[in-house]
Design goal:
The complex is a heterodimer of chains A (380) and B (124). Chain A has 380 residues and is α+β, with helices and mostly antiparallel strands. Helices cover 21% and strands 32% of the residues of chain A. Classes of the chains: A alpha+beta (380), B alpha+beta (124).
Chain lengths: 380, 124
């Protein structure tokens, strides 16, 4: 997890802060916010609960913003100058994962882009970006937009995520019809009398929803959702172990300005039209890496023993030569053992390749492993 | 009767004769959260006071466990590697980490008693 870079600056709080404290959450600084890292259940049980039932996450520290332009093509083409996904062909109600890129193809942030439903919203896109990057992202995007496309930062909504196999059962009782949504789609709805926007997506590898709720209504929505016996509040600790098992990148750790989307194995998020046409930052490098392969790749890593290998751990080949570094590592509660990911030289990236991890000065045997560690259970 | 002392690094130490049993406190395990991995030192290892000799890892982080005293490791709790969760269940009992034969019992005087440790935790 990102340490807070400005420990002296006052930490911001989400509209759910008081509820977290009253439910016994342990609060830590994260990306400039006071956030719940765990509740009384504890990280391990919170993780397993989410995989078995449904976990509710406060992700209001993340940034929500809207782009408004005269029509979809104009807004989509403006955003496409900053990222490599096909936004032009995004259908109303469809969501896509992408990355804001630097001119050298490094990743400035990763984000979700949704084209909202409804013809009256033609020309509008909804973006959700990382908490630690949001101010820089907004400045970057605004600076590069044409005069007829406007960025609107949305400070009026909190964001909560209901994740796990029971999420659909719980939410469809409150918002009929959400069971019919497919993965990576979004819609407007009413939850507990409040207008919300929800998407069928998340950061756990499980089925679930992310719900943007007005700040003034989110405490009531949180209480309503957690009143279900299937729902427990889940902190950032389990959020991290869930996404790691699911093989999902954490910005600032698994991806950053020094890694390209191809090195990070995110090429699935670059649709064919964009590969063919280019026209995004770093296109030359990214197309060359697609054609020839990158020099390093993000891989899954399974330590052979019980000892977790943490972020920053050196990866060596079996002759003792350094070939890479772990970028996320820890204990996977569902795997019931250590799991990690990191970057290795491409020659060592093949599944099953034996490697060693230097933990507390000693080489621990490990192997390149398939990602995700736990199968995704998205509803397509 | 056993002497019970505590370190500022949140280890407990119980001394009978010249043998000290060492583990981490209930407060320490509470701060760590769910313990998923424990590494104890090898029997026979000479350890110095305040030397990192064992490791305890929770889901989130790895922490060193220090020996509060100088001496030789004479026994370790092998069961902890198979059931690290015991540290959460019984930190100051069954989940002891290692035993040391003291070479400098005077070091115990620098450690806190239970009341002193409780006050230390409250203030920190």
């Amino acid at each position: 997890m990102s340490a807070d870079p400005s420990a002296s600056a006052p930490l911001r709080r989400t509209p759910l802060y008081d509820l977290h404290v009253s439910s016994g959450a342990k609060i830590v600084p994260f990306a400039g916010y006071d956030m719940p890292v765990q509740y009384p259940l504890g990280v391990l049980k919170e993780h397993l609960w989410t995989r078995e039932k449904a976990g509710l996450f406060d992700v209001s520290h993340m940034g929500i913003c809207w782009l408004h332009g005269p029509d979809h093509a104009t807004t989509a083409r403006a955003l496409e100058t900053l990222l490599p996904a096909d936004i032009l062909n995004l259908q109303p109600g469809q969501q896509r994962y992408s990355q804001l890129l630097a001119t050298d193809g490094g990743i400035l942030d990763d984000l979700m882009v949704t084209r909202p439903e409804g013809s009256e919203r033609d020309g509008t896109l909804l973006l959700v970006v990382n908490a630690g990057c949001k101010d820089a992202d907004y400045a970057h995007i605004a600076k590069h937009l044409p005069a007829n496309v406007r960025l609107e930062v949305d400070d009026a909504h909190a964001l909560i995520a209901l994740q796990g196999p029971r999420a659909v059962t719980v939410l469809s009782k409150l918002v009929p019809g959400v069971e019919g949504m497919s993965f990576m789609s979004g819609r407007f709805a009413t939850l507990d009398g409040s207008p919300v926007h929800l998407t069928r997506s998340g950061y756990t590898g499980e089925d679930g929803y992310e719900i943007a709720v007005p700040n003034t209504a989110v405490a009531a929505a949180w209480k309503l959702l957690t009143s279900s016996p299937d729902v427990e509040p889940i902190g950032l600790g389990a959020r991290d172990s869930l996404r790691l098992e699911a093989g999902l990148c954490l910005y600032g750790h698994d991806i950053d300005t020094t890694t390209s989307p191809i090195e990070a194995r995110l090429q699935w998020s670059i649709q064919k039209r964009r590969r063919d046409e280019g026209g995004f930052p770093g296109a030359d490098r990214i197309r060359a890496e697609l054609a020839n392969g990158p020099s390093q790749r993000r891989v899954g890593i399974k330590p052979a023993g019980r000892a977790p290998a943490r972020e920053g751990t050196e990866i060596q080949d079996m002759s003792g030569r350094a070939i890479g570094t772990i970028t996320s590592g820890g204990f996977g509660p569902s795997v019931n053992g250590p799991v990690a990911m990191g970057y290795v030289e491409s020659a060592h990236a093949e599944l099953g390749t034996p490697i060693q991890l230097i933990v507390r000065g000693k080489p621990l045997p490990a192997a390149i492993a398939n990602l995700p560690f736990t199968p995704h259970r998205y509803v397509r | 009767m056993a002497i019970e002392k505590f370190s500022k690094d949140h280890e407990w130490i119980r001394v009978e004769g010249d043998i000290a049993t060492i583990g981490i406190t209930v407060h320490a395990q509470d701060q760590l959260g769910d313990v998923v991995f424990v590494e104890v030192p090898e029997v026979g290892r000479k350890v110095a006071a305040d030397e990192a000799v064992a490791v305890v890892e929770s889901v989130k982080a790895a922490s060193d466990v220090y020996s509060p005293v100088t001496g030789e490791v004479i026994e370790t709790n092998g069961g902890l590697s198979a059931t690290p969760g015991l540290v959460n269940e019984d930190a100051e009992g069954k989940a002891w980490f290692f035993k040391v034969r003291l070479s400098n019992p005077a070091e115990l005087d620098a450690l806190m008693d239970r009341a002193g440790y409780d006050a230390f935790v409250k203030d920190s």
